[in-house]
Specification:
4-stranded mixed beta sheet; 5-stranded antiparallel beta sheet; 484 residues
C-alpha cells in the first residue's frame, strides 16, 4: 500500500493524497451514522486523466477504489471498507452550455445547485431538485439515478442524461460524452453506469438535458381524507393539467404536525384537521398562461365532489415558497421525533394509496404506538415510508427492529410488483435483501456485468450485489452501535 500511495503522491502531489485519519473523517462515515468505514487514503484528482491514473494504479495493486461525491447518500453506498477513496470534488467545471442543443456538459464533482445556477444563467432550467442540492454532486446523482420532486414532469437522472464520460476499472476512459437524442449504434452503455453506484465504472462528466425556464407557476396545498382521495385528485390533475403538472407531493397528518411543531415561524396552511395533504405545482414556460385559474377550476370541482376537504393557493412567490418549505422540512424534523426506520419504495401509481393503507395497518398492528410518516412523490409512485418510534420507547431498542419492519413493508411492496429501492439506491443497507425480492435471472445478469466490467472487483466492492467480494477485498464495515 505504501508503494501505491507513493506513486499517487508523485503524480497528484502530496496535498491531494490524504492519509492522516483525522483528515479523512468526513469521507469514512455514512451521513446518517449508519456505517463507519476505513480507508488507506483519500485522493483528490483534478481531471479525468488523473482519475484514470489513480484507477489504473489501484487495479495494478489490486486495491479497492470507492468513488465519492458529496457523500450525501442514504444507503451506505459511498462508505469505504479499506482501499482508496477517490473524491471527485475537484472535477467541478461546467464544460459547456449548448443553448441550441439544450444541453449542459458538467463534470461529476459539480454541486447540483451550481448546475441549476449555470442553467439559469443561460436562460434554461435543469429540473433535478433535491433537499441536499447545495451539497450533493452530479456524479452521485448519476450513480444513484436520483429523482427528487420533479420526476413526475421531467424524469429522474437517467431521463435527464444524454452522454457520459466514464473511467473503467482498468483505467481506460470511455468517451461517451455526446449530446445526441438518437444514437442507435449498439448497446446503450450509458444506462449501465447510471444507477450502478460506482460498481461498474467511475463517471467523470455528463451531458445533461436542459428545459425552458418556467415563467408561470402556481402552487396549491390541499387537505383531504386520506391516500385514496389524494390518488383520485392526482388523476384529475393529470387529466386536467397534462404536462403542466410538475409536482404532486403527499404529506400525511403526522408529517405536517411535526413540521409545525419543530420549525420556527411555520404557519398552519389550512383550517381544521386533515388525514392527508397534497402539495401540487403547475408550471409552464408561457408567461401569460393562467395556471392559478386552472388550479382553482380543478380544485373547485374536487371540493364539490367531496374529494378535497380544503385547499389554499399560493397568492405570491413568497407564499408558494412557504408551502414548499413544509414539504422540504419534513425529512429533517423526523430526526427530532426519535428513531426513524426508513423505507424508500415504489409501487405502480395505481396502487400507491392501497400500499400506504396496507403498510400502515400492518406496521401499526405489529407495534402499537408506532407513528407512520408516509410521504413523497405520489405522482410517480415513490413513497418514503418512514416509521417514527413510539413516544417514550428506547431508541436503540426500537431501531433494533429495523430488519423486522423491512420485511413487513418490503413484502407488501413486492406483492404489489413494486421496488424496495426507488431513488436512494441499494448500497449496503438493502444489498442482502435483493436475494429476497430481485428476480434470480436479473441478479445473475448483474453479476455477469460486474465480472465483465470489473473482473478484479476493485470498484466499490461489497455494494449493490448481494455477495461479498473475495479476499483481500473483504468488507470490514459494521453498523454503528447506535444508529441515528
Amino acid at each position: 500500500m505504501q508503494g501505491l500511495v507513493g506513486r499517487l503522491r508523485e503524480r497528484l502531489g502530496p496535498a491531494r493524497v490524504v492519509t492522516e485519519p483525522s483528515d479523512m473523517t468526513g469521507q469514512l462515515a455514512e451521513m446518517r451514522g449508519l456505517y463507519q468505514g476505513t480507508a488507506a487514503a483519500v485522493v483528490y484528482p483534478a481531471d479525468t486523466d488523473e482519475v484514470a491514473f489513480v484507477v489504473a494504479e489501484c487495479a495494478a495493486a489490486r486495491v479497492a477504489v470507492v468513488a465519492q461525491g458529496g457523500n450525501t447518500g442514504l444507503v451506505g453506498g459511498g462508505v469505504p471498507h479499506g482501499g482508496i477513496v477517490l473524491s471527485l470534488a475537484r472535477l467541478d467545471r461546467v464544460r459547456e452550455v449548448d443553448g441550441l442543443n439544450a444541453t449542459i456538459t458538467v463534470e461529476a464533482g459539480c454541486i447540483l445547485q451550481r448546475v441549476q445556477e449555470a442553467a439559469a444563467e443561460a436562460g434554461f432550467l435543469f429540473p433535478l431538485s433535491l433537499a441536499s442540492e447545495g451539497t450533493c454532486r452530479i456524479g452521485g446523482n448519476l450513480a444513484t439515478n436520483a429523482g427528487g420532486t420533479a420526476v413526475l414532469r421531467y424524469g429522474n437522472m437517467r431521463e435527464l442524461t444524454l452522454g457520459l464520460e466514464v473511467v473503467l476499472a482498468d483505467g481506460r476512459i470511455w468517451h461517451g460524452l455526446k449530446g445526441l437524442r438518437k444514437d442507435n449504434t449498439g448497446y446503450d452503455l450509458r444506462d449501465l453506469f447510471i444507477g450502478s453506484e460506482g460498481t461498474l465504472g467511475i463517471i467523470t462528466a455528463a451531458v445533461l438535458k436542459l428545459y425552458p425556464r418556467p415563467l408561470a407557476r402556481a402552487t396549491a396545498f390541499v387537505g383531504c381524507g386520506g391516500p385514496q382521495p389524494a390518488l383520485a385528485l392526482f388523476e384529475r390533475f393529470r387529466a386536467g393539467a397534462g404536462d403542466h403538472l410538475t409536482a404532486f407531493e403527499y404529506i400525511p397528518r403526522f408529517g405536517l404536525d411535526i413540521v409545525l411543531k419543530h420549525v420556527p415561524g411555520v404557519v398552519r396552511p389550512l383550517q381544521g384537521d386533515h388525514a392527508a395533504h397534497a402539495l401540487i405545482e403547475l408550471s409552464s414556460p408561457q408567461s401569460d398562461l393562467d395556471l392559478g385559474g386552472r388550479l382553482e377550476e380543478i380544485l373547485a370541482a374536487a371540493i364539490e365532489d367531496g374529494i378535497v376537504e380544503d385547499a389554499t393557493i399560493g397568492a405570491s412567490e413568497a407564499q408558494s415558497r412557504a408551502l414548499w418549505g413544509l414539504r422540504e422540512s419534513l425529512s429533517e424534523v423526523q430526526k427530532l421525533e426519535g428513531g426513524s426506520i426508513k423505507h424508500d419504495v415504489a409501487v405502480p401509481v395505481s396502487r400507491v394509496a392501497e400500499f400506504i393503507e396496507a403498510a400502515t395497518q400492518a406496521c401499526e398492528a405489529e407495534m402499537p404506538g408506532i407513528r407512520v410518516c408516509a410521504f413523497g412523490h405520489f405522482g410517480d409512485g415513490n413513497i418514503h415510508f418512514n416509521l417514527s418510534q413510539p413516544v417514550g420507547m428506547d431508541k436503540a431498542a426500537y431501531l433494533a427492529q429495523w430488519e423486522h419492519f423491512n420485511r413487513i413493508v418490503h413484502d407488501i411492496v413486492h406483492a404489489m410488483n413494486g421496488s424496495i429501492a426507488a431513488e436512494h439506491g441499494i448500497g449496503l443497507i438493502k444489498r442482502d435483501e435483493l436475494t429476497l425480492y430481485k428476480d434470480p435471472v436479473a441478479l445473475d445478469l448483474m453479476r455477469t456485468l460486474k465480472a465483465s466490467l470489473d473482473p478484479l472487483g476493485i470498484l466499490n466492492p461489497g455494494k449493490v450485489l448481494p455477495e461479498r467480494p473475495a479476499e483481500p477485498l473483504q468488507s470490514t464495515l459494521s453498523p454503528m452501535v447506535a444508529r441515528s
